[in-house]
Each structure stands twice: as C-alpha cells, then as structure tokens.
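We emphasize that the prediction below concerns an isolated chain of 659 residues; any contacts that depend on oligomerization or on bound cofactors are therefore not represented. The input was used exactly as deposited, without trimming of termini.
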Amino acid sequence: MKGGTPEPTPDKPSATFISWPPPGLEAVQGKLWPPIALIALGDIALVLPLLWSMSSDQEVWSFGPFGANWWIPLLTAAVGIFILLNGMGILFRLLRLFAKGASQGHGWLIQLQVAADFPKDGGFLLQGARIYSGMEPAKRSVLLVTRTVGASAYLLAALWTPLGFALAIMMGARGWVGPSGAWLFTIVLAALLLLVGVLSRILGRKIAWSSRRDKKLRAAVDKHVRDLVADWNEQSLQVRRDLGFDGADAGYARSFRIGAVCVVLLAVVIAVPVITATLTGAAGNVLAAIAVPNLDQAQARVSVAEVLRGYQLDPDGSVSPEQAGDALHALLSASGDAHDRILDREPVRVYEDPWFPEDVDSLMAGQTGEWALGLFQRIRRGLPSNERSYLAAVAAHPAHGEFETIAMADSVDIVGGRYVLPFPDTASPFLLPIPSYRGIRDGANAHVALAASQLSRGNRDAAEQSIKEIISVGFAMVDEGSTIIDGMIGARLVDVGAEALEQLYRATGRTGEADNLMWVRTGMEQALEKASVTRAKYDAESALRIMPDAVLNEQVSRGLRWEYFLTFATLAPCVNLNRVVFGTGQDYEQWIADAESALVRRPSDEQLFRFLEKGWLRGASAYQAPSWIKVALRVTFGGSLGGTCAAQLGGMDMVGVVQ
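Result of the prediction step, given as a token string:
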C-alpha cells in the first residue's frame, strides 16, 4: 500500500494458458477484414452510381443523370466489379482455410473469432491475460461477442449491397418493384446490418477502453505474462467454459467447402444481372452516339422548297391515293434495276426501256439534266434532225403518264405502293428497301425534255403542265414520303421543275415571271447556305431530346418524322439505366399513341408504324445476339421483354425466346 491506497490487482487468470492463434489457424488470424474492406469499396464504386442512374426518374430521351458523361458509371462499374470480385476471391480462399481448419478439428465459432481478430490480441482477451487480466469474464465474453458480431455484420452488409442491387434489377425488370423499391431493397437491409456492426464496434471499444484507461492496472497486468502451452483443443475447451461458452463441435469442413462454393455462386448472381444491365444501358448510349442522324440540312432543304408550292398543280381528285402510290413506285422503278429485294413490291407497271436511249451521237455528253434544260433556248434556233429524233424518242417513253397520274391525286399512298404488306413478323426495318431513285431523277429530266418537245410543237400550255407535274410529284414525295430520302429527292424534283419552268418562261417571252422565279430560287439557295453555316451542332442526347416533338410536328418533313420515329423507338428504351430496368413508362406509351395519331393516315401507314415501332434490331433477319447474351438477358430481365431494350439488343423477338 502507498498512502493507504491498495495496489490494483488483476483478476486471477485461468490456470491453463493456450496459444493464439490456435495451431493451424495462423493464416486465418485477422483475415476477415481485408475482404470486408475490398467488397465494401467495390460496393461504393459499383452500386452507388448505377443505383442512382437506375432509380432516378428521367425523361424518355435522357441519357440519365450523368448526361453526356454516361461513360462515368460504366467506368466505375468496371472498377467496382473488379474490386468486388477480388474481395470475394479473398473471401473464397478464407472459407477454404476454414474448411481446412474444420478438418483439423477446429470449431466454426473459434475460427470466426480468429478471423475477426484484426488487433491480434484475441488470445489475451480469451484468457484474461495482459491488458485484459483486470477485466471481468462477463465483460470479456461481451467483448468477444461484439468483435465477432461486428465483423460478421460488416461482411453481410458488404455482401448484401451488390446482391440486393442485382436482385432489384431483376425484380424491377419484372415489374415487382419500382425505382423507390429498388433503393429500399438495396440499401435498407445493408444499412441495418451496418448499424449492427457499428454499434457492436462502439460497445466493444467502450468495454476495452474502460479497462485500459487505468495506468496502475495496466502496469500490474504486465506481471501476469505466462508461458503458452500445447494441446489446444482440450485446454481451449476448459477456458471457454470458464467464460460461459460451450465448446464448438469440430467437423464443419464440408460446410465451409459448401460456403466457399456459395461465395462463387454469389459472385455469379451479383455479376450477371449487374454487368448485363450496365452493358445494356451502355450499349444504348453507344448506339445513340453513332446512330443518331443529324438531318438539319435535309430538313432545311425540304423546308425552303415550300416557297415553290404555288407552282404545283391543283389535283382534281380523279386518282386515288393507292393508284398514285402505284404510279410513284413505277416511276421509282423505271431504271432497269432488278426488283427482287425483300419487302420491295413488284411494280404494277414495269418499264424495261431506259428514259434516255443510247446517245450514239453524244448529244448530251452524259449530262441529261443540262441537255434537257438547254433545249428551251436551242428550240428557238432550231434543233438538228438527229437531236429532234432523239428528243422525240425521249418524249415518247410510256412512263411519262405516271407523272400526270401522281399530280392529279390529292394524296399518295407511298407505303402501300412500295412495300409488300403486311410486313412479315420475322422481318426487321433493316430490310426496308431503299429505291435507287435513279428512275425518278432520270424521269424528271426526261419530263423536262417532253415539255421542250411540246413547246417545239407550239403547245405552250402542255409544256407548262408537264413541268408543273414534276413540281407536283416532288411535293407529293415531300408530303407523303416515309424516309428523309423521299423528302430530299422530292425537294430536288421541285427545284428541277422550277428551273425548267424559268427556262420555259424565258423561251416564251414571260420575262417578268422568269425573273421572279429566278429570284425565288436564288433566295432558296442563299437560305440553304446560311442554314448550313449556322446549323446547330447537336450531341446525341440533344438530338434525342428534339425527336419526340419533331415526330408530332406537322411542320417537319414527313419522311424525317418517320426516320425520327424509328430512331427514337429503337433507342429510347436503352439510353438510361432507369428505362433499361423499369421499362419505358407511361410517358413513352403516351408518346407512341400520339405519334400514331400524327403519322398514320391510312391502313398501310398503320402497318408501317407497327413495323417500325419494333426498332432497328428486332426480327429474325436483324442482328442475332449470341446465345450466351440471350441467356444473360433472360436471367436479368425475365420473359416479358416486350419492346424493352433487352428485346432490342437480343436481336429478335425475345418474348418467344425466353418463355
């Protein structure tokens, strides 16, 4: 005693001391924490950005919360999955060591305590030695429990986060949970487990600190260091009974081996849906970046042609839309090309002879347009006999009547005249034939030559009628076309007709009208030039943003609206992770209904609409994904894919594949 105060005396330790870590478990001591740290780090990199992208409600055109930086969650996912799988690999090897320890006679609980012993003082704690010699057995028992429970809770929280996210993806794709449910399903249980781990650690630290803060007691504890003894199992059992623990039975080797296999299976369960959903969304972004067209110039060319609409003929309604569609398809096909393309309808009238016979005298020098336009001035001076004969042959081509047929129709059923309807279920929009358009371009030049021939015979009205038929056919393609090429070729025909009409007016002394027309055409070209200089440069997301409204806008070229509809129907389900997992949503379905009302005018349009609604990649004739991709899509997104991104990237009607 010093000054009447007794020296602190530690509790008498057990008479039997054991080695720590137990024999054969040296490689296990404290090794539970590295996989916990790696898996948790992988969770942060992998799950959080993707969960945010998946659960954030976005506009149907949006690339997601990262916008043009859509590659960021793809990068973090790649890093996260690498770290996560590395951590699970360490956990797998740890469980294999547990299996080995169990086969050597160690119980599962003592192995877990050794693995959780990051401070490497578990032996002292277990036996009440050194710094813990002054701690009551009950407190040491609680401290052992808090260490084990805390580490286990941290591990389970780290494992549940990616597993819960993977399950949320699969449940969301099947309509079992929504974006909010995905957050809750992924985070809540992980947060509760993390809370258990944190509270366990806090309690353990509080107990340990209460015994360590007495300096005199710690000095006294140092006197109780003893030699460690062998024969671990028997001695450990006695010590653990002193603490109130029953000895854990050995023989868990098979269980730990099964656990190691379960870790591998868990990695697969996490990796397949997470990687599949991530790459599916990234594929949509990549596809949008390379496939979204910038068609501003095409729209501008079609728009400026509107100033010439006053020169088209007034239709008399004597020709039905179907008849006009047949006539336009016959004109497009009047080029000598074969008509054996899939979905390309056989023309109702076939013209074997070319618009321009063989030019044996080299009258045109290969420039049919320039030759035809120059005829109006040369006719006044008189054509040589060989050129008159050649002109008569061009004017006599039997397909000229198709121009008049189209010009007299109120509208033209281009879709019904061009395609084989109904479209086969196995077909893809990739198979839609693109006409060569050579037939109608040559036909327009030949029709200009016909007008010149009529003028040479003194029939000015017939000549003007023929030229305006070209303009009328051009506007029919602009107004009724199903592709932007239809609109651009139509605008080109309008320009050809306007230039020919100007030449006709000058040749017939109508100089004022010719000058007015020249002024209008010059203004068109200047407007186009300025539009090309000031045209906005859209990134893929910005282009997608304007597409839904453009499809519904009657002021936009009809062909461009059809093109935008196909592009948007293909990409909208794929451009952000929220739509990939939870589907396109009611906003998209409403837009589809509005687009149908805006685009569909007749039964043939309805069939084209349903065909394009599938997107580029659907149909047995489109891109076919490898079978392993289809399996991954099936596991991740289930069997009711409908018009989803998974169905697009599967390359076929996945509904029939996955059921």
